[in-house]
Amino acid sequence: MRALRVHELGEPKDVLRLDEIDAPRPGPGQVLVRVLAAAVNFPDALLCRGTYQVKPPLPFTPGVELCAEVVELGEGVTGLSVGDRVLGSAELPSGAFAEFALMGADVVFPAPASLSDDEAASLFIGYQTGWFALHRRAGLRQGETVLVHAAAGGVGSAAVQLARAAGARVVGVVGGPGKAEVAKELGADVVVDRHSEDFVQVVKDLTAGRGADVVFDPVGGDSFTRSTKCVAFEGRIVIIGFASGTIPTPGLNHALIKNYSLLGLHWGLYRQRDPALIAECHERLTELADRGLVKPVVSERLPLERLADGVQRLAEGSTVGRLVFAPSA
């Protein structure tokens, strides 16, 4: 089979190489799947660079999220059948940027019939992250104001739709007019281009000085620091990641003075600690997808030959919506 593999660590455009290799075989608790579509995520770039918390042995195939067809069951796998259309996470080092991949049976879920393969491939990590951040960590309530950073990106776009579905008012922060259009299409009530506007002032004006009840921050750096200036009394800032490359050092005295909460989210830990919550979340997301309330925005479909460039552009923050590896592209 063909697979895009990393043989040495570095920038995605430099280290992703198209290889011809044997298809992997499923071990106990695993399934072998034929990849129908695989969404590109920021962790894929971090894996190439060797800066992600998971460090698979070289050489490895990235691609952590996919929609696929089950072709073989490993020992002990029940509840799945050959031919099932599924979504979930790939098992590294046999990731989804290939014609076939491995998945752990505990994170294989039915792909919603209401979504295309490309859309279903984008429903798992970003939307699960958004759901856990807004509902489990922040306890989002109807009518609250949510500030979403990187609102046109993978997890940010999911957060915009999920917050809107929950009855919240959404302020989306983006970088550039093209991304602003995507955030508007996603349903953000107000879109702020950080290159030309001050989101702090926009949020204060919109809320009559109260501030955002929830801040969804996958960026870190200055985005986090400035968010503390417009978070509401008893507001919640959910820390998703640090796409800016800068991990902020918060002034805890400021959190004390304004009575706001700093909440961390490492969604992947729930697979280890309480996998039933991931299954429950998938059911909620499927319901929302079937009702048309969430729908991943797929901006590009790329073949393996052009995928390294796509991963690089995502890493550099120049993409909008979701990039998807599509074998048929």
TrEMBL record:
<protein>
    <submittedName>
        <fullName>NADPH2:quinone reductase</fullName>
        <ecNumber>1.6.5.5</ecNumber>
    </submittedName>
</protein>
<feature type="domain" description="Enoyl reductase (ER)">
    <location>
        <begin position="13"/>
        <end position="325"/>
    </location>
</feature>
<dbReference type="Pfam" id="PF00107">
    <property type="entry name" value="ADH_zinc_N"/>
</dbReference>
<dbReference type="InterPro" id="IPR051397">
    <property type="entry name" value="Zn-ADH-like_protein"/>
</dbReference>
<dbReference type="GO" id="GO:0008270">
    <property type="term" value="F:zinc ion binding"/>
</dbReference>
<dbReference type="InterPro" id="IPR013149">
    <property type="entry name" value="ADH-like_C"/>
</dbReference>
<dbReference type="InterPro" id="IPR011032">
    <property type="entry name" value="GroES-like_sf"/>
</dbReference>
<dbReference type="Pfam" id="PF08240">
    <property type="entry name" value="ADH_N"/>
</dbReference>
<keyword id="KW-0560">Oxidoreductase</keyword>
<dbReference type="InterPro" id="IPR020843">
    <property type="entry name" value="ER"/>
</dbReference>
<dbReference type="InterPro" id="IPR013154">
    <property type="entry name" value="ADH-like_N"/>
</dbReference>
<dbReference type="GO" id="GO:0003960">
    <property type="term" value="F:quinone reductase (NADPH) activity"/>
</dbReference>
<dbReference type="InterPro" id="IPR036291">
    <property type="entry name" value="NAD(P)-bd_dom_sf"/>
</dbReference>
<dbReference type="InterPro" id="IPR002364">
    <property type="entry name" value="Quin_OxRdtase/zeta-crystal_CS"/>
</dbReference>
